[in-house]
Each structure stands twice: as structure tokens, then as C-alpha cells.
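Lab meeting, action items carried over

1. Structure of the two-component assembly. Owner: GW. Status: complete.
Input record:
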Amino acid sequence: QVQLVQSGAEVKKPGASVKVSCKASGYTFTNYAIHWVRQAPGQRLEWMGWINAGNGNTKYSQKFQGRVTITRDTSASTAYMELSSLRSEDTAVYYCARGQIGVAGTHYDYWGQGTLVTVSS
Amino acid sequence: DIVMTQSPDSLAVSLGERATINCKSSRSVLYSSDNKNYLAWYHQKPGQPPKLLIYWASTRASGVPDRFTGSGSGTDFTLTISSLQAEDVAVYYCQQYYSSPYTFGQGTKLEIK
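Predicted assembly:
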């Protein structure tokens, strides 16, 4: 069965970086995209960016451009999301989600369990 | 950015009754080249990730009960639960995936009356 398993909770200081992993299983990793979506307390879900797990191409939300980097390791069927220059407003649960690869966007049929990132001095 | 607005923010419905949630997009999410609405519905229970219910505005995801129905086109969409069950208590979100950044509604909290 399809599973996306994310790394554990992180506590970071303002200005630091965090890297969250998302290990996929149960399907051919390179045939799909991995998107990253975050959910801050009391806020709506917010899309951050995505990676084509096949060719490694990425696209980021303008809001996070310059601060977010999404990569993948096909040998480990794992995608990564690194967010730098953390501030308190980045405190959120970060999710990876599987999508289709295509010209336009995609719905997300499987989600990771979420990783809580807390930014606090 | 396309802004997604859901109504109502919260809803209380009796078991076995119909629940209706609306979603309005600030621009059409109907892609003319394939005549598909790039609109999905999810629900999220406490402590869990969102779960896909409906995509292409009206296609039920695998394993989703047929009491969940998505409808609408262009800018106005509706999720209907025909006969509310206790396990349907959740927050419901619509999402447009027509153009980046892919945006979500603010959520509708569905409870039992």
C-alpha cells in the first residue's frame, strides 16, 4: 500500500534551517510528484512547492522562493524539504503529499503523517 | 493568487441529514483545453493529515462512500454529504490546482447537532 512517512518533530531557533524528509513506499517513486503543504496553527493549508520525482524539476510558491529547497533521492525513494531563515511564523505542521506529474496542478491522493516544526528562541 | 472562500465556516447537522458546504474561487478553475475543473475536496480529522474525497470537482476518490458528492463548475462548487454519519465529523477544505500557488479554502468545521 502507498505510504509517505515523514521525519520527526523539530525545534529550531529563529534564523536556523530545517530539513524534513518524506519516504515513499508502495509505488514507483519516479512516476509521481511530491508536493509540500504546511498548516500553521489556526491557519488554512498552504502550498509551498513541488518536485517531479522523475526528473527532479521543482516549482516553488513565490511566498517561499529563496527560502525553500525541495530535493529528492531516487535511490531512497525520499523527498526532502529544507526551509531556511526560520522565523516564529514558520511554526507549523509540514506535510508531504503525492500528486500526478503534469503540465497543470494536481490533487493529492496520499499524504504523509505530518512533521511539527516549532520555531522558538 | 486564486482565493478560495468556503461557506459556512461551521455547520451542525443531525445524523442522517444532509450537509452542504460551498466553495467559491476568485477566478474560474475550469481548464478549457480539457474541460475539467481543477478543484478538489478533502476532509481532516484532528491529529490526522487531510484525506482526499473528491477531485476534478465531482470524481469520488477511491474508497470514498457514495454519500459524498461534488458538484459545480467555473467558480462555484458544492460538497454534499447526503446522510451524515458520525465519522464524517471533520474540517472540510476545497483546493484549486488550476494555477500556482495552489490554494485552499479556510475550512468548514462539520459537527453533529
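2. GW to write a short summary for the group page. Key points so far: DSSP finds no helices and twelve strands in chain B. The mean pLDDT of chain B is 97.
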